[in-house]
């Protein structure tokens, strides 16, 4: 299962930059609805997600007490602090690509026994590190559908 997840992530590394680059700067910067993030801010949020999950995967790779505590983060505060709405599209896209290359590299290096490592979510639910990797891809796909839903060029 983890191999399929990582294969899909690698495919996204090949396809997302080209698809996002087809967006006009105006389309990338325009909020999808009043009070909602723009496509560029969603991509920025995916960078923040990659940072947080990469940290989780690295901690999960190291021997530690179980379960590993998974700390949540305030996604709106992160997007605001990063000021993605003021950042050049190519900069945010390059950051997304670099972070996700690291996610794939770290996740590929996780031995089977570490994939079974237990992690406790903020709500108390206990999951495995492998579940976190799969959930990362699910979250990524959810937001990519938001970015690419509809006309990509206007």
UniProtKB/TrEMBL annotation:
InterPro entries: DinB-like, DinB/YfiT-like. It comes from the Bacteria. This is DinB family protein. Residues 9-147 form the DinB-like domain. It holds the Pfam family DinB_2.
């Amino acid at each position: 299962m983890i191999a399929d997840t990582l294969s899909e992530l690698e495919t996204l590394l090949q396809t997302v930059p080209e698809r996002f680059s087809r967006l006009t700067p105006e389309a990338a910067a325009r909020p999808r609805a009043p009070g909602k993030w723009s496509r560029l801010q969603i991509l920025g949020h995916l960078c923040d997600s990659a940072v947080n999950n990469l940290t989780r995967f690295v901690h999960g790779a190291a021997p530690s007490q179980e379960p590993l505590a998974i700390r949540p983060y305030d996604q709106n505060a992160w997007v605001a602090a990063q000021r993605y709405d003021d950042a050049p599209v190519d900069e945010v896209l390059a950051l997304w690509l670099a972070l996700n290359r690291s996610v794939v590299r770290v996740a590929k290096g996780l031995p089977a026994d570490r994939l079974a490592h237990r992690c406790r979510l903020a709500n108390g639910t206990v999951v495995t590190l492998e579940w976190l990797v799969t959930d990362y891809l699910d979250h990524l796909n959810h937001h990519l559908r938001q970015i690419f839903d509809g006309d990509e060029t206007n």
